[in-house]
Structures are given as structure tokens and as C-alpha cells.
Amino acid sequence: MTALVPPDVARWKSWAAMIEDFGGTDEMHGSGHWNLEGDPVPTEAGCAAYVAMTELTSTADLDGTRVPSTYFWITDGDGGPEDEVVGFLHLRHLLNDWLLEQGGHIGYAVRPSARRRGHAARALALGVEAAAGLGIERVLVTCDVGNDASRRTIEAGGGVLEDERAGKLRYWIATG
């Protein structure tokens, strides 16, 4: 089972283990780590800073480049407090010019040790449901041209390829 939960400092130990499992930010899509001052620090204080960042950047247009959005953590259960945090999902409520070209409505990543268990596919489906709840009729999801695992996940989730732009495959998924 897989669930989307709001970021919460109460899960800091599981979050910290996930950050260490990623081993850097290169594959932490959907995490929002670029809004932090420096890389995420896998401590309780680091988690608190991360949670505060998700709350601040999800509702405010701080620099003219951000849109309203919702951050989630992907867990390996039904969302209960003992579930392991296995990834990130970021749902953007609108698309600006850059998101339309590159980023899309939904960005997600699953930690290396939890891959190939269906978490990405289930999280993407839950993200599409959340988008529908916001009144978004179709979502744009992108992946790097060479990322076959993400491409297969998006296609299995109903993604219809529109085109390739600047090394990104751009897929649309109907939410209804």
C-alpha cells in the first residue's frame, strides 16, 4: 500500500533515513529541496526547516517563479504514523511558463531502497486524484528522455505523450 501524507516533523527519523538513502539531491524530484538554504540536513532540526519551507513555498509567490502547490511525502502504508517515508510528491496547482515546458503539475521521487515496489505508480495515481479534487482537468507530468522507469510509470498511469522539449518527455493525464 502507498499513501500521500503532509510533511510532518513527527516523521523526522523516517524522513532523515530517506534523505540519507537518496545520497544527494540529484534524484529528489518533487522534494522542493532547491528552496532550502543548502541541502536538506537529516536531523530533527533539518526536518523542521524542510517542513517550514514546504508550508511557506506552497502558498506564496515569493519571487514570481512559484505557483500555489501542495507537498506530500509518500509512505509505504495507509498513511499511519508508523509508516516509512519512501518519497516525495509535489502537486503544482497551476502552470507557469517554465512548468509548462519542463516541470509539469506533478514531480515525484521514490528513495532508492524502496523502488520497484509500485510506490511511484500508486503515488502518481494519488497525485492525479488530488489534482482532480482541486478542479484540475488534466495534469502535465514530465520526465527526462532517458528515464525509462519514470516513462513507464507515467504511461501506465494514463499519460499520453505530447512531445519532447529540451530533453524532457511531456505527458498529459486526464484526472476525470
From TrEMBL:
The keyword Transferase applies. It holds the Pfam family Acetyltransf_1. One of its GO terms (molecular function) is acyltransferase activity, transferring groups other than amino-acyl groups. Residues 82-176 form the N-acetyltransferase domain. Keywords: Transferase. This is Putative acetyltransferase. Transmembrane segments: none annotated. SUPFAM superfamilies: Acyl-CoA N-acyltransferases (Nat). It comes from Nocardioides kongjuensis.
